[in-house]
Write a structure and sequence with these properties.
Length: about 575
């Protein structure tokens, strides 16, 4: 597989070569600061950036660089206080199209080869229903897993299921006392378990006798009592079935093989604490073992402890995360660990990372990153809740979006067989939810608005799916063999073709940018801009009725490459790109 060099990289090379001719060596080696521009194909403000150090007016530097640029590769002019405007020859852009349209993976390289990235995402809690709060971690985490993997990283997905804790003692005790209540073999529905869980909690709060029995059950669970463990295992299995059903419906890559719930680390907790004690990192505070940090304080200004072992000798969420990070570094050999978890856990992760650093597990060779995200809001601008104030089940949200997609698509799609229509409706509804989530800047809150998200217009998943379908339907209308014509690099580029070609060329750079910033909305924004560039092209450049066969061939290549780029981009977001709509 050969990577196609992006036009932007060619321009950078040309500017760098010119800089080397006209600037002192210590200044010439830096970033040539080439960006896409409205005034030319690209612009560089490197002359402005270097003027001070070079002790020359920026305009003079810009002119010198422009004069030195290889005019066959790039034509350069200067403007304003010292901008370089850079335009590439038509043939260069056509060559890129010709290379990419037939390339495996669109000619995109694998710059992340050699990196082992552990991605912690989804992580719902056993015996509870997945709710709206799990939507973002699941969808964002999965998109990152796909994109980083596509760029060559060795991705290890980790589903840190909430499968351990005192609440299970309570639930198992309740189940034991109510053998008449069915919860087994619900075929991927945990609503009964969820209800049992809430009933157990209510009785725990109201009935001291039950609370006592529940506590003994916690002890039994923790000390490995066989009967108690057996029920716990069934609870886990039943819940995992339900989660898997939802992952499958969402088109998320997670499988049971990616599950490494909290209980996985039980065996290591004592050892982790011992290691921290031996290293003098923990101190005793009110009977608990804690780590303190000078720069992490609560609202009252007091330092907030990371509780590694509770005063009753039990271990909690923090101890588990310490064992987890040690395992991910020492055993999984991660070079990067991403925790795609709600922004409200920011302080927890700061403390876990700082402790891991003090313990010597987390070194400069490993990047541990909390990838936080904002809240999903209801139309009233408040966190999404049911009318009674409860959490909204994720499956209900999906049903709502699919239902709305069915209305919108049935109106538009004619001539689809019922099976295919249903497939498209699911793809559009689920895709709409995922796209609405991914296209909002990750750290911002957003409003879950079903009508807006399934709209055929605007920055929506359906719009992009539709743009992809339009590229397909044009190709379907071509005479036999015409779809594979070679690109003629001698033809002049229409401005709309030029804009589309430049947009297509930006794909690799966009993916690299998402990998750096961990912000999938940049890919959404890119695909949306690409779809718009395609629409402009389509409106001003006839394809089937092109003037010559060569022109038609070139335009067909633009359609094909746009279609492949949209489909690949959607796939990397975890969104299906149906062939028809
Ligand atoms: N189960 C947790 C929750 O629902 C999320 C776990 C995130 N991952 C982690 N390693 N702490 O809040």
């Amino acid at each position: 597989m050969t990577d196609v060099v992006a036009t932007k990289n060619l321009v950078e090379t040309a500017v760098s070569a010119a800089m080397a001719q006209v600037l002192p060596a210590e200044l010439a080696g830096g970033d040539p600061l080439v960006r896409r521009s409205e005034h030319a194909d690209f612009q560089s403000n490197v002359a402005l950036a270097l003027a001070k150090q070079a002790k020359r007016p920026p305009r003079e530097i810009a002119q010198a660089v422009a004069d030195a640029i290889d005019a066959h590769a790039v034509s350069a002019t200067t403007s304003g206080p010292g901008f370089l405007n850079l335009t590439v020859p038509d043939a260069t852009l056509w060559e890129r199209i010709g290379e990419r349209v037939n390339a495996d993976r669109l000619g995109i390289g694998t710059p992340l080869t050699g990196e082992r990235m552990v991605i912690d995402y989804s992580a719902p809690n056993i015996a509870k229903e997945m709710h709206v709060g799990h939507l973002r971690t699941t969808i964002i985490g999965d998109a990152l897993a796909r994109i980083l993997g596509f760029l060559g990283a060795d991705v290890v997905r980790q589903n840190h299921l909430g499968d351990w804790g005192t609440q299970f003692g309570m639930l198992i005790q309740y189940i034991d006392e109510h053998p008449e209540l069915p919860w087994r073999h619900q075929g991927g529905d945990v609503s009964t378990l969820d209800a049992l869980y809430r009933a157990a909690r209510a009785q725990f709060d109201a009935d001291l006798g039950f609370a006592d029995r529940a506590r003994s059950r916690v002890v039994a669970l923790q000390s490995g009592d066989a009967a108690t463990l057996a029920v716990w295992r069934e609870l886990v299995a039943e819940s995992e079935l339900a989660f898997q059903a939802l992952y499958d419906r969402l088109g998320v890559l997670l499988t049971p093989a990616d599950s490494a719930g909290e209980s996985t680390y039980n065996l290591f907790l004592a050892d982790v604490v011992e290691e921290l004690v031996a290293a003098g990192i923990v101190v005793e505070s009110d009977g608990a073992l804690c780590v303190f940090f000078d720069d992490i304080t609560g609202p009252d200004g007091d330092r907030v402890p990371l509780i590694v072992r509770k005063s009753d000798g039990g271990f909690g969420y923090a101890a588990t995360d310490l064992a987890t990070i040690r395992y991910r570094i020492r055993d999984l050999k991660a070079t990067r660990i991403l925790y795609v978890v709600d922004a409200r856990q920011a302080m927890h992760f700061r403390m876990v990372f700082a402790t891991a650093r003090r313990a010597g597990w987390l070194t400069d060779d490993v990047h541990a990153v909390h990838v936080p995200f904002g809240t999903v809001l209801a139309a009233d601008g408040r966190p999404f809740k049911t009318r009674s104030g409860g959490t909204v089940r994720l499956s209900e949200l999906l049903d709502a979006a699919v239902g709305r997609a069915r209305d919108v698509i049935s109106e538009k799609a004619h001539g689809l067989a019922p099976d295919e229509l249903e497939h498209v409706v699911q793809a559009a509804g689920i895709g709409a939810v995922k796209y609405a989530d991914l296209s909002t800047s990750r750290t911002k809150d957003y409003t879950f608005d079903v009508d807006r998200m399934v709209s055929f217009t605007g920055n929506t998943g359906v719009y992009l799916q539709y743009a992809h379908v339009r590229t397909r339907s044009i190709l379907a209308k071509l005479p036999e063999g015409a779809a594979l014509a070679a690109v003629d690099t001698t033809l002049p580029l229409h401005p709309a073709e030029r804009a589309l070609a430049l947009a297509l060329d930006d794909f690799a750079d966009t993916l690299a940018d998402v990998a750096d910033t961990l912000e999938p909305h940049r890919l959404c924004g890119y695909l949306f801009a690409l779809a718009k560039a395609y629409t402009d092209f389509f409106e001003s450049c006839p394809v089937l009725r092109a003037e010559t066969a060569a022109q038609r061939g070139n335009r067909v290549a633009l359609c094909r490459l746009t279609g492949r780029t949209l489909a690949t981009g959607l796939h990397l977001l975890g969104i299906e790109a149906p062939q028809r709509l």
